[in-house]
Amino acid sequence: MKQTQLGFWTIALAATASAQPCVMPVPLGSYNTPGYSRGVAIVDTTAYIADSDDGLLIIDVSDPRSPTLLASYDTPGTALGVAVVGTKAYVADNQAGLQIIDVSDPSAPSLLGNYNTAGTAINVTVVGNLAYVADGFAGMQIIDVTHPFAPIHLGGYDTPGQAQAVAISGNTAYIADDFAGFQIVDVANPDNTSLLSTFNTLFYALDVDAVGTTMFVTDFSQGVWAIDASDPANIVVLDSIDFADRAEAMAIEGSLAYIAHGLAGITVLDIGNPSDLVPLATKRISGTSGDIAFLNGRAYLASGSAGLQVVKAKPCPPDTNCDGVLSPDDFSAWIAAFNAGSNRCDQNADGLCTPADFTAWIANFNMGC
């Protein structure tokens, strides 16, 4: 790397970025739901909360500092998970199975149909016209929801553990199976599914997210596992990271993962290199973070007895000292980053650390985060 002196600075020209971006979660607002918030989905400026015995809550978050209740729908069971596709909310309703609710008018939700699964519906993922239900000790159930008034059970896979969450990529289902770890199942033919592979995450696998053929498994006591599943018969652990507090669920945007981190609140993890997972920040928030959704720089957490928590959690390039506050101290930190060739120097997002980033840092600083 070529260096030159300019005043008291040692300037690294065209250095390749090497450090991690600054992300400091900042709580914005909350809504204290009447029940115990277990699941969350976000669509535009509307949050959908699976609120245990109080069913589905629909909350306007257009002003994240003051969320307001639009409506609620008291499901017959215990609402544990929710997915929203188009104008329909799919609620994993524990002993009452899958509930399909019309939310075309968020202020007046109404039941369309339901299917009472064999187990206890914990979570649901919807792809096209198929709902994949993590059904506890009954494993994964696959339900055709083409006609929401009359859902049809197509098949499933009875996993050895207690299915907690399902991610779908193509014709493959990736199942977080609690004490039985991580299961990979061929679902090309829903009425004739087959196991492709399994991996024991040591404790309790609670969530799984797919980025291509790389799987990120959230394990209650073991943190996060990054797994290469490009060859399901020969899966490879790329990296894992343990946390002192339990990891419950994850939402991914770009190269960052946002983790619902139990009593620890929210943790931001850099997953840009799955072979080198790097924690960036943790922020304690109210309640016990059990599920998370992310959209447009904000995390929405189902936080148990503390209801819905809204947290700003987007990268802030000019906050070069990573303290969550923009101040003149960030200028000194930018100089240090510049001299080190760190990507905290890279303010114009060209992947390099050059003098042009000084002007970009000023513009970013003035713009704020």
How would you characterize the overall build of this protein?
It is a single chain. With 369 residues, the protein is mainly β. It folds into 2 domains: 62 residues, no CATH class; 284 residues, Methylamine Dehydrogenase, Chain H, CATH 2.130.10. The chain is 7% helix and 44% strand. The chain is built from 2 helices and 32 strands. The strands form 9 sheets. The protein has a 4-stranded antiparallel β-sheet with strand order 4-31-30-29, with no helix packed on it. Strands 5-6-7-8 form a 4-stranded antiparallel β-sheet, with no helix packed on it. Strands 9-10-11-12 form a 4-stranded antiparallel β-sheet, with no helix packed on it. The two termini are 32 Å apart. The relative contact order is 0.14. The N terminus is likely disordered.
